[in-house]
Records
---
Amino acid sequence: MCAPRVSIWFKLFVPVLLAMASGASFAQANLDIDTPAIRALTASMQQRYPQLLPYYASGAVGISHDGLVALRDAAAVPLPQRAQVNALVAADNQDRIALYRDIARANNHPEWEADIQAKFGERWVAKAQNGWWVQDATGAWKKK
Amino acid sequence: MTPTKHPIPYLSGLALCVALASCVTINIYFPAAAAEKAADQIIDEVWRQEHGSAAPAQKPAEK
């Protein structure tokens, strides 16, 4: 007979809200990071790491908030080593950018590159050792 | 409002279409949790770390 007005809204909106809630609760599938290109970039960065390590420790090279490394204090590098450190930083950043791009492409979402870079930026900083220099979201450097 | 004419269902139907369209949009999201897991895996490999503690002097036997 005369149904109350509120029941129409319930019939229409409750299923929609439930559908949205269930979509949000789906577990996320793993990202694919097992391609030859990604493995090669990881290996390249891994091989370079022991050469960069003393500069992380001295604070000459810091972990930037956008997933890259930076020569934040050239004065901390003895003059004869400066060219080499600049080359290491440039090469590592080249690998990093390629890594973020390749992960996005391996998962068929090239538009994810910026988000992947930002997420890596978070995690490099989180996993940096105490004593290393890291950059916060405002761009300020601080010793971890 | 007469019992035979209900404009509200038409408006609600329109709102439902908008909501459904936004549901499709919501499904195309960046999987932040999966990205964090992938990032951690790669970072641990690059920095040769186990559970966040580095051992730079180690020469790990790689698989």
---
Amino acid sequence: MNKKKGRKSILEGTGFLLMITIALFIVMYVIGCLLFADKGFAKPQVFINLLISNAGLIVIAAGMTVIMITGGIDISVGSVVAVVCMMLAWMMERKDVGAIPATLIVLGFGLVFGLFQGFLVSYLKIQPFIVTLAGMFFARGLTAMISQDMISIKNEMFLSWAKYKIVIPLFGRVNRRGEVMYPYIYPSVVIAFLVLVIIFLMLKYTKFGRSLYAVGGNEQSALMMGLNVRRTKLYAYVLNGLLASLGGFLFCLNTCAGFVEQAKGLEMDAISSAVIGGTLLTGGVGNVFGSLFGVLIKGTIETFITFQGTLSSWWVRIAIAALLAFFIILQSIFASLKEKRK
Amino acid sequence: MKKRLLSIMLVAAMVGVMVMGCSQKADNGDSGDASDSGDSDLITVGYAQVGAESDWRTANTESFKSTFTKENGYELIFDDAQQKQENQIKAIRSFIQQGVDYIVVAPVVETGWETVLEEAKAEGIPVILSDRQMDVSDESLYECWVGGNFIKEGEDGGHWLEDYLKEKGMDGEEINMVTLQGTIGASAQVGRTEGFANVLAENDNWNMLELQTGEFTQAKGQEVMESFLKKYDDIDVVIAENDNMAFGAIDAIKAAGKTCGPDGDITIISFDAVKAAFDAMIAGDLNCAVECNPLHGPRVAEIIQKLEAGEEVDKIQYVDEELFDTSMDLEEIVKTRAY
């Protein structure tokens, strides 16, 4: 009974937690702009680069948020990204598959991968951690089976997608050659934002979205309310598999290469972004826009380190660790405070 | 209500501490830069390094850090990519936005750089590659590449063997040799195998019994050498394409009851010449080590000075590499070695 009360009150506090995440991001960014003003931190392109470099991660973190809302976890996504990049590169370069069919095939692969993992989790009731651990090993092994060499993507259509600059005709500035440069984004950023909006609307307004929260909040009561818990979970994993492969596709647009070691540890970046964004590992609470800000905070710390120029890049990890600890403590303080008030 | 107020204050305090922590951290570095920002004649160089996975890599990083100093007229922005290509792409994008004058990259992998190099080109920032090549369709995306000449290293090893055998009066005899190759496909393996094969072709009395990969590791090198020793009883020369495999081979030879080194039955030639290889030569186990020079910093600085003066530079720039054997005063040389 206690547990249930705690959950409910956290739900009320999540708005506030999200506000803190957003405020923290803004404060960090403003500090960056002030500190590195002479190096051009305040340029719009610096902010846009956060989105360009992390477009894949944004989509993957959105999928992770959905899974975490159901109380599950998926640590296979990094390996799925690697296998997606490798499949794309291998199909286009070694087998002359066109860019469009190759993309559809990898998205289909993600769907089937998610379906399989989801079946094991929801119908056979195996711990999601173990299922996706196996999935992680399998996908990484599959990547190496396809090819142990690095494959560079030279498919013209794929490269034209990757290089297609969408220029924003605002805030132009002159580069060293005297040409005017405008900020630009790549199509991957547009896709990532579309996905975010769709997942946000789905979570908030559809029956499936609300069922995800119900299942994650308390599986027993969800069952008693007549929700099909198993099917809801299955669909969540299928959706996550699709988003993981889409994230892999966006990741591949950024790197244009397939190799075995790619995207190692990306699943942990996705999980930490979701947690910083206010998603609870215990389920029932979460918001995709929180995860977006989790990704942006990580990106901002990285940008800090490169602009600073002399600090070891491993400080990013330490800063993320501090933030994670901070947000977890905050979440538990909120839970206990509200409980006492009642 | 009081408690709620308290919690909000607590949160505010924690955020405040975090923010101060962040700003202080950045401040330390920035105060150094701020005092120099008046010197606008400093050349800013961004170096996107692979990581810190080996002694060789660390020596390479140190070489850049000690070359591109403020005293020499440079400001170095260094980024450790932790072996991740996506981190290097992020670092290069950040260098571009900071408006650095030159970008140096030691690519983690050979592929997938076109988009970000085109962004650098659009900004007019020259890119110099260090150590590993890039597989890009348009060579104008980078100015030049700086690194070791693996083929020449292989040839140097071969020529050393020619001289050594002549000195020992064995140049007419049948010489049986085996090779412990590196990871197949790695540029060091391909170049060193090819370079040695060039010299092998000139010597009819040299007989290459077998080439097999030891994957650049000591354990695998030892394993392969053990099988070689079982298969062939009269191996005269072992070529190990890096030091670690040579150490493995030395262990295998000793375990089989044979001897190696200048006074032993088997001559061993190794590549890379790390500090431990000098120790092995001093101990009399290893005959010769061909250097793979990690000190790219000075050569890159030279190229940047040429580009600053508006000169053309060659697309491929090899660093100088030496060869060490037991006839030299190794104890003195090892004191001057950076790695």
